[in-house]
């Protein structure tokens, strides 16, 4: 099976590559001021999602069976500050990928976000009404609406707050960022008024491979088992690594002078994920234990 992963060096792209469990030929695209070396079964190509001609050449060469589209602007504040650029990447780039998937009859897995919800009626299932409260969420929802009636098999995957081991040259996530500060003895300021069901990134990778292997092309909310504030989440991480939990400081939204509001509580229901993909959501203790074990590999 031939797979294209856009954003192949991001946290989810890396986790997908690390969790592949059946025979695939993966071509992973990326951008950034670094060079990725090809390795067995995986070819890396530096290619901006806005480069429609570059992607046309790639599809013509690969003729992918499936495209997993993870590339995009992931910061709500960056999206708010750079609206035109974010639209070109998160909407324009996705529509170009969709058009090529239709032309080459490739299946598509689009990575959406918990940011499509307003955070007022958690826990959320796949059929709950999206009501984004910032520009980032609005664009994710815009793409979702464009994909709902597409003529090819298409899955919409909504991961919630993910943690895992990112490449050192890529953007850190909440767990790796917090650990880097605690190792220096520096305080970590985190929201105690934002609630999620945190997701170990490799579990999201497994869910996506399950969608592809089982042919379950529909909408999936993917999450861990445990609803928690981000503050309590990082307190548990500190305890696991035996750091002084007094380094973890609770703050409210607004502390970081955010440009845009985040949803208060986007905790997910995971019944569909369990029933159709056979994937049991992990507790924070289970997820963090795997996270810690992976750091030694």
Brief characterization of the structure:
The protein is α/β, with parallel strands linked by helices and 297 residues long. The chain has helices at 11-19, 52-62, 76-81, 83-104, 135-147, 174-183, 201-214, 230-240, 271-277, 284-294, and strands at residues 2-6, 25-30, 42-46, 66-69, 107-111, 154-159, 162-163, 188-191, 195-196, 199-200, 219-222, 228-229, 248-251.
Strand order of the largest sheet: 3-2-1-4-5-6-11
Q: How helical, in percent, are the residues?
A: 25-40%
What's the story with the biggest beta sheet?
A: 7 strands, parallel
Under CATH at level 1, the class stands as: Alpha Beta
Q: Please tell me what the overall shape is.
A: globular
Number of strands: 13
Describe the protein in words.
With 297 residues, the chain is α/β, with parallel strands linked by helices. The chain has one domain (2-169, 198-223, 267-281): NAD(P)-binding Rossmann-like Domain (Rossmann fold), CATH 3.40.50.720. The protein has helices spanning 11-19, 52-62, 76-81, 83-104, 135-147, 174-183, 201-214, 230-240, 271-277, 284-294, and strands at 2-6, 25-30, 42-46, 66-69, 107-111, 154-159, 162-163, 188-191, 195-196, 199-200, 219-222, 228-229, 248-251. Strands 3-2-1-4-5-6-11 form a seven-stranded parallel β-sheet, with helices on both faces. Helix 1 links the parallel strand 1 (2-6) and strand 2.
